[in-house]
Amino acid sequence: MRSYLALLVFCGLVGGCASPAKVPTSILVSPADISVKAAAAMTEGERLFRSSNWAGAAQAYQAAATQQPSLAEAHYNWAVSLDRMGNKAEAKKHYLEAANLAPGNKVIWDSPPLRETGLNHNLRQKSYLDPTPGQRF
Questions:
Q1: What is the distance between the alpha carbons of residues 60 and 25, in angstroms, rounded to a whole number?
Q2: What is d(CA 92, CA 82) in angstroms, rounded to the nearest whole number?
Q3: Which of 4, 5, 47, 118 has its CA 20 to 30 A from that of 13?
Q4: Which tens digit of pLDDT belongs to each residue from 15-53?
Q5: Residue 45: per-residue pLDDT
Q6: Residue 134 buriedness (CB in 10 A; 0-12 / 13-18 / 19+)
Q7: What pLDDT sits at residue 2?
Q8: What is the pLDDT of residues 60-110, one digit of tens each?
Q9: CA distances for 28 relative to 25, 99, 118, angstroms
Q10: Which residue has the higher pLDDT, 90 or 126?
């Protein structure tokens, strides 16, 4: 009985350690050196995102990216908002744009379509943030 219990505990520990990391669901904060209009759009996007208004947040982040096209955080946050809405194809474009604009940003490069599976993410999932079938968190 004791060996059975030890085996059960061991399997639980191994399985817990082997499970994939939880997908980040947060947005990035605005850097200090952005234009006033882009900063206002980013602030509005953050407010809308936190209230789960994904469409409104996506529009605000789009406005920020339009005001300052080199703002990687706007593209990343726009992608996360689109992803929450289930628009994976459009989200992927902005995850990639953010990665191109911020080659050293680990948070951006760990985004769902760029992580370990590379760019071959399962496009049948509604969102990059949804777990793969059989995946446990």
A1: 18
A2: 9
A3: 118
A4: 444 444 333 468 999 998 999 999 999 999 999 999 999
A5: 97
A6: exposed
A7: 53
A8: 999 999 999 999 999 999 999 999 999 989 999 999 999 999 988 999 988
A9: 10, 13, 21
A10: 90
Complete DSSP assignment for the chain: -HHHHHHHHHHHHHHHHHSPPPPP---PPPPSS--HHHHHHHHHHHHHHHTT-HHHHHHHHHHHHHH-TT-HHHHHHHHHHHHHHT-HHHHHHHHHHHHHH-TT-HHHHTSGGGSTTTT---TTSS-TTSPPTT---
Q: d(Cα 115, Cα 121) in Å, to the nearest integer?
A: 9
Tell how far CA 54 is from the center of its chain. Answer: 13
Q: Give the whole-angstrom CA distance, residue 45 versus residue 58.
A: 7
Q: How many CB atoms lie within 10 A of CB 62?
A: 19
Rounded distance between C-alpha atoms, residue 7 and residue 1, angstroms: 10
Enumerate domains of the chain plus CATH numbers.
31-132 (1.25.40.10)
Residue pair 95/118 in contact (Cβ under 8 Å)? The answer is no
